[in-house]
Amino acid sequence: MSSTSFVAAVWLLGACAGLAAEPAAVTLTVDFGKELGTANPRVGFLGGLRDEFPDALIQPLNPALWRIGHQFRGRIKEGLTGAVTRVEGLGGKYKLVMSDLIESQPKDWGKYESDVKKLVAQTGARAKGIIWEPVNEPDISHKPIEKYYKLYGHAFKALREAEPEAALCGPGFAFPSYEKYRPFLEYCKERKLECNYVAWHYTGWDAHFPEQAKWQLGKMREFVAAYPEQKIREIHCDEWGAGPDKPSRGNPGRLHPGRAVVWFHYLENVYQVERACRANWGHEDDYLGGIVTPKGEPYPVYHVYRWYGATKGQTRVAAEGNGKELACLAAKQENGATVLLGSLCKGARKVTLELRGLGLKDFTLSVQRIPGTELDKPLAEAEIPAYKEHKLEQGAEAVTVTLENVAENEAYRLVFAGK
Questions:
Q1: Cα–Cα distance between 164 and 167 in angstroms, integer?
Q2: Residues 298-318: tens digit of each pLDDT
Q3: Where are the domains of the chain?
Q4: Which CATH fold topology does 3-38+314-417 show?
Q5: pLDDT tens per residue, range 345-390
Q6: Distances (CA, A) of 396 to 31, 357, 358
Q7: Would you state the torsion angle of the CA atoms of residues 252, 258, 260, 261, taken in this order, to the nearest 10 degrees?
Q8: 411: helix, coil or strand?
């Protein structure tokens, strides 16, 4: 990190903590010349899918992962196979939580393996495209954890006998840490088992907390090279955030638009997972993770998901200065670019975006704002307000856009369109 970026990051931490009464503009830098690969939005859900939700509601989100066990019952008329077909039609991967459907503490291993094979037969040709997860949060249900290791071995054997191309997901620990996964991977290595996907859970509101707790989740990518025998394809966060609980119970209520942007930044750039699912505690959040009403009407945060999902297939570019309370994500395509900004800073802040290498001539800029208030009130796309309090300046080395009053919990989208 450059000295300039370090100073800006330190100042940002103090400003967001309320240490400066009248802070100068916070500056985030986006370098469109530093490409990070194809944008792959980390949008996914734990359950939340229903027949009555049309593709037109879901497809703009470009969900990459659906983790569904029993939640298809009563919601998908065609049952499990219908749920898998729907997810694949939406372009996502289906992760099946097997312990929701068959026994996970068996006394008869022969019967358990038979039940696994019946489940594979039930999914038919779809079996090879499913991610098979034997147990939900085994660090809670299986003590000592070696009981889970044994179950995983039997699940692996039965799945591969029934479908040689079946892919398995290892333990999605409820209380994850980098070192906690190593004994499991060593167990698999010694017994010639594969763990094709590594996953972890975190159901808190604060995206930064795992870093503060020193869980080292971003280091989990090292397992891919360290355990080649496992043929690890991806790292997942299977549950992030929490449900729209009552603020009186200690949670902030429905997901803030600004918090969603911060989480997406952490999932991509800090924890470096390929796919992620929003947590689902049932009740109100049992509808696409609580981002729509039971009737499918979009809450404000739905549009942040939609904006983020719309960058799929574009080129993700680097951004500096992001933190736990203010973050942006940027992407570019031919003759255009998009920047998403989310704030959790207390009060309003003046935020300057320094855009280097934008490479657009004769462009137009439009800015929209998703309010951080009235989170329980549906917001139609046509009702999203334009944000007029911004100033655009074009310099020799960069384009700067200053947003005069970036408010707490809000999200902003800047769209640059070239001619």
A1: 9
A2: 999 999 999 999 999 999 999
A3: 3-38+314-417, 44-309
A4: Immunoglobulin-like (2.60.40)
A5: 998 999 999 999 999 988 999 999 999 999 999 999 999 999 999 9
A6: 14, 10, 12
A7: -160
A8: strand
